[in-house]
Amino acid sequence: MTTGLGRLAGKRALVTGAGSGIGAATAILFAREGARVGLLERNVDGLNRTAATIAADGGVALALPTDVSDEAAVSAAVDRIVAEWGGLDVAVGVAGIEPYDRGDARVHEIEMAIWNEVMATNLTGMFLTCKHAVRAMLASGGGSLVVTGSPTGLVGVGSFETAYSASKAGCHGLARAVASGYAGDGIRANVVVPGFIDTPINAAFIAAAESLDDLCKEIGIPMRRPGHAEEVAAMNLWLASDESSFATGGFFVVDGGQTSI
Questions:
Q1: Residue 6 placed within a domain
Q2: Is the pLDDT of residue 205 over 90?
């Protein structure tokens, strides 16, 4: 049985990267708050785990195996949601990769293959998510789009993650363009900026740290701990809900204070 307050009751949503981390936490929270949620994820095992959790809670979800860098796949997933539920009200783009251990580095050290891989998932994937979500929202009378950004796209904390930093800065610009371009159509677009979050993408950093307190001090987090996926999901929930009806084009930081100093 769902246990939320119904803050998304009646909403039709999609979440990319829904198989783990922030995407999974967001999809589960949305379902608990009454939304029907389309789960887009290329990792089928993760996708099925999230779908099973939502079903066990009494929520409603569609598991849609999707590579967000493939336009035909993204378009088909959105069309399936619209066909199933009659429209789309909310889209949250979370899917992303950060191959710091496979070659994302300083700019003169990056191989073209790594650059292309990061851009295909992080930036092109976000573009395709926005393109097809907005298409469906226009037909539905409006909606809320949430783009996942990063401190590395705001300030110079990603000096050894050049491709990732550039891709996230691109996502920020994309969200601004959508926010200004579709405000008159009742479509809002905002950026949530998670900091160092305890999710699989950061698992290697966390596992290698002798002390999480020292690690967080080293990378400049005043709260001296990693964030939790559920803390980012809570911000996504507010932006997806009607409570944030006058918020568009904004940046909502969930980073323990990292970008405040």
A1: no
A2: no
